[in-house]
């Protein structure tokens, strides 16, 4: 099987589902990625959307299952391949699959804290120093939601204040640490 290394930037469009395969667990979800360009009138135009099924194995299972949900903006690195199968009606189908080697939140959209598997997070340098978008940080345990997290105001704007690429996907996020 030929595999192509690739990075996909997009938004999770299905709830990540954890499944036991017998030998190990896998987390699967679908990502939508689209391009945006500036039109002649200065507005942003959304291009075609690419949908990719993402499969996470090994240590990624715990981190992804505990941290991400439908609607989150993510960056996924992995190996792209085509999965072929017959559907319920006997039709031969294929889909793009991405075996992830790394998954994380898109930091163009979010301000977040990191926590290693099983190790409490240290306060981030600069938190509480008056930077726009600061929020009270609290240490949370493994698998608990940090509900005070939000995006930094204006994170989806260019320097001139116009909506930038991905402006249509901004907003608040709850960060779940793993």
TrEMBL record:
Keywords assigned: DNA-binding
Q: What is this protein called?
A: Single-stranded DNA-binding protein
NCBIfam families per UniProt: ssb
MF annotations from Gene Ontology: single-stranded DNA binding
**Pfam short name (any one):** SSB
Family annotation (CDD domains): SSB_OBF
Q: Quote the cellular component terms of the Gene Ontology held in the record.
A: nucleoid
InterPro entries attached to this UniProt entry = NA-bd_OB-fold, Primosome_PriB/ssb, ssDNA-bd
Q: Does the keyword Cell inner membrane apply?
A: no
Q: What does the annotation say about its assembly with partners? A: Homotetramer.
GO biological process: one example: DNA replication
């Amino acid at each position: 099987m030929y595999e192509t290394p690739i990075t996909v930037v997009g938004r999770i469009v299905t709830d990540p589902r954890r499944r036991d395969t017998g030998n190990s667990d896998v987390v699967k979800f679908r990502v939508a990625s689209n391009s945006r360009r500036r039109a002649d009138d200065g507005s942003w135009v959304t291009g075609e959307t690419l949908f990719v099924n993402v499969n996470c194995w090994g240590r990624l299972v715990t981190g992804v299952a505990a941290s991400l949900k439908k609607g989150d903006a993510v960056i996924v690195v992995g190996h792209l391949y085509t999965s072929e199968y017959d559907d319920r009606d006997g039709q031969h189908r294929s889909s793009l699959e991405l075996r992830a080697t790394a998954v994380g939140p898109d930091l163009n959209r979010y301000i977040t804290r990191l926590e290693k598997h099983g190790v409490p997070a240290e306060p981030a340098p600069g938190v509480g120093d008056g930077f726009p978008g600061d929020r009270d940080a609290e240490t949370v345990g493994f698998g608990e939601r940090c509900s005070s997290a939000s995006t930094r105001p204006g994170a989806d704007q260019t320097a001139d204040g116009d909506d930038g690429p991905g402006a249509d996907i901004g907003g608040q996020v709850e960060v779940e640490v793993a």
